């Protein structure tokens, strides 16, 4: 069975249409805001928030404030948010430091890539 490379997604897109992302393999970039050692969960932010399940990553040694690229599968969280909605969780299988990445340029590049791919 082949392992998917992960569709590029933005955290804001996950929040806008959560049901379309369930079960998909994605890659997101965000800033690490906190990490809970007891539950092996991290929180990424970039125009929204995303909970990341880091159990498959082993030693999670990224400092708070780092920019990370995370690849994994989207699942629903067991808890609900204040509005009663069930937030998404990314079950990470790969994480990589991306400190120094220009997020504006990254977004522009992804938009150009998507427009190009939509033509074919």
UniProtKB/TrEMBL annotation:
This is Uncharacterized protein. GO terms for cellular component: CST complex. GO terms for biological process: negative regulation of telomere maintenance via telomerase. It holds the Pfam family Ten1_2. One of its GO terms (molecular function) is telomeric DNA binding.
């Amino acid at each position: 069975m082949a392992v998917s490379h992960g569709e590029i997604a933005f955290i804001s897109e996950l929040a806008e249409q959560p049901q379309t992302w369930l079960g998909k393999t994605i890659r997101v970039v965000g800033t690490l805001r906190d990490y809970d050692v007891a539950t092996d969960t991290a929180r990424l932010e970039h125009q929204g928030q995303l909970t990341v399940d880091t159990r498959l990553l082993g030693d999670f040694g990224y400092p708070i404030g780092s920019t990370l690229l995370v690849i994994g599968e989207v699942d629903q969280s067991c808890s609900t948010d204040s509005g009663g909605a069930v937030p998404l969780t990314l079950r990470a299988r790969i994480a990589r430091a991306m400190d120094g990445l220009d997020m504006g340029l990254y977004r522009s590049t992804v938009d150009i890539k998507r427009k190009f791919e939509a033509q074919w």
